[in-house]
Amino acid sequence: MLKNIKKQFASKEKSKAGFAILFSVLMASFLITLGISIFSISLKEIMITTSTRDSQIAYYIADSARECALYWDVKRGAFPRCTDSSCTSFLDADGNSVTAANTINVPVTCNGVEVILPFNKNASIFTYSATQQNFFKASSTPSAPVSDISITKQWSIDKTITTIEARGHNTGIIGRRVERGIQQINN
After folding, report:
1. Which domain holds residue 78?
2. Does the reported pTM lie above 0.90?
3. Three-state secondary structure along the chain?
4. Which of 2, 24, 127, 148 is paired with 137 by a 20 to 30 Å CA distance?
């Protein structure tokens, strides 16, 4: 009878040990799942915040390019404009009359960086555009923020309509390219 009691007691102990191992495995898997979920949420939050930062940088580089183009257009008169209805004659940055030129390069300086804006004339529409200009002297890395700028002057009867379009690009630490654009139309 003592042997029977010992056997019953031993079998109950084995079933308790099996339950403890099962409970441990279930708890470990629950904690691992919880940890992976928290890590996934944290990673998404980091991606959102860096994307927001990269978006702001792209916007500010576009705004910087637009402001520079506006300064050179309004204060310095750097971009030629029509002087007659057929746009065969126009004024250059110095106020000199220029004729029969279809392409010239207009150099401007933005934030200490010289930017060359090639000029194309098509009837009464003048277009100056440059791509991938780095407006930050200190940054020469391939992922530095850059801007594409386009200035279009369209002559009509008695006024010139100037459209300045700037697009800022930024490739952040995640490697996703962010682009923001600004357009300004002056009559």
Report:
1. 40-186
2. no
3. CHHHHHHHHHHHHHHHHHHHHHHHHHHHHHHHHHHHHHHHHHHHHHHHHHHHHHHHHHHHHHHHHHHHHHHHHHCCCCCCEECCCCCCEEECCCCCEEECCCEEEEEEEECCEEEEEEEEEECCEEEEEEEEECCCCCCCCCCCCEEEEEEEEEEECCEEEEEEEEEEEEECCCCCEEEEEEEEEEC
4. 127
Q: Give me the residues paired with residue 82 across strands.
A: 90
Q: CA 114, CA 112: separation in Å to the nearest integer?
A: 7
Residue 87: pLDDT band (50, 70, 90) is low
User: What would the two tokens of residue 129 be?
Assistant: 């555009």
Report which residue type is found at 65: A
Does residue 2 lie in a domain region?
A: no
Q: 35-44, 63-72, 104-113: which has the minimum mean pLDDT?
A: 104-113
**Closest CA relative to residue 117, chosen from 71, 69, 153, 76:** 69
Q: Which of 14-18, 83-87, 121-125, 181-185 has the highest mean pLDDT?
A: 181-185
Q: How many domains does the chain have?
A: 1
In a domain, 29, yes or no: no
Task: Compute the distance between CA of residue 153 and CA of residue 82 in angstroms, rounded to an integer.
Answer: 9
Does any domain span residue 16?
no
- What's the confidence (pLDDT) of residue 75? 78
